[in-house]
Amino acid sequence: MDLGIKGKRALVCASSKGLGRGCAQALAAAGVELVMNARGAEALEAAAAQIRADHGVSVTTVAADITSDEGRAQVLEAAGAVDILVTNAGGPPPGMWHDWERADFIKALDANMLTPIALMKALLPGMMERGWGRVVNITSQSVKSPIAALGLSNSARAGLTGYVAGTARQVAGKGVTINNLLPGIHDTDRAVSLDGNAAKAQGVTAAEARRAREASIPAGRYGTAEEFGAACAFLCSQHAGFIIGQNLLLDGGAVNATL
User: Fold this and answer.
1) CA-to-CA separations, 6 to 34, 57, 66, 81, 241, in angstroms, rounded
2) What's the burial of 34, exposed, middle or buried (CB within 10 Å: 0-12/13-18/19+)?
């Protein structure tokens, strides 16, 4: 399928690895020029070089912390006028309700709610003026089915979801769509880290912890960054203009819900 976005320009955050890189690769395969951001310069440059070699698109890299005011300003200056925005940031650490203080919540809100909002506020006006734009926020399945150990993430990402629900309806008439992708467990560094934490808590090996989590997923496996990226690219395509303010689960069926 021709996604109809060849020549568009996209900013993809936290795209040196994992789900962000999957999204960047899928957009590049559709002919989209990229601005890639991540904190680690070495991994970012390696990912960008691979994408340039594989797809022949222009890739600008900005090594900066997107959750800081300074880093965000640096990224936005380099990005300029973009047609597509994919927001993404690593999730807060796991824990229990009695572990978290106000500072922990503020940090989670800054990374997983306020940063995507700031990026949208900066880039939506240009998209609306040009009459076309796509925003995809990478959130979490925990928005629909809270994960007890990820209370910081549950809270911050739910707040972003509420913001998107209202904002998406206000900009849709200008040809701009905003939607959220809700990943379940994917084969990324984040999953490895969570498996390691579970292994320590349960007194088992990381491999055993992974097999137990895979068994809890109806699909019987972890997702891949490639299939996640393909879903992102479709939401950014010319074919997705009537999908407004939605939350798409990519979780292998793990969330057991009718709607």
Assistant:
1) 11, 10, 26, 16, 16
2) buried
Residue 92 is which amino acid?
P
The Cα 226–Cα 206 span in angstroms is 23
Residue 28 and residue 52: Cα distance in Å, rounded?
8
Q: What pLDDT, in 10s, does the model give residues 203-231? A: 999 899 999 999 999 999 999 999 999 99
Dihedral angle at the C-alpha atoms of 195, 201, 204, 207, nearest 10 degrees? 0
pTM comes to: 0.94
Q: Is 137 helix (H, G, I), strand (E, B) or coil?
A: strand
Share of the chain above pLDDT 90, in %: 88
Residue entry with tokens 């340039």: 52
| pLDDT (mean) for 72-90 | 97
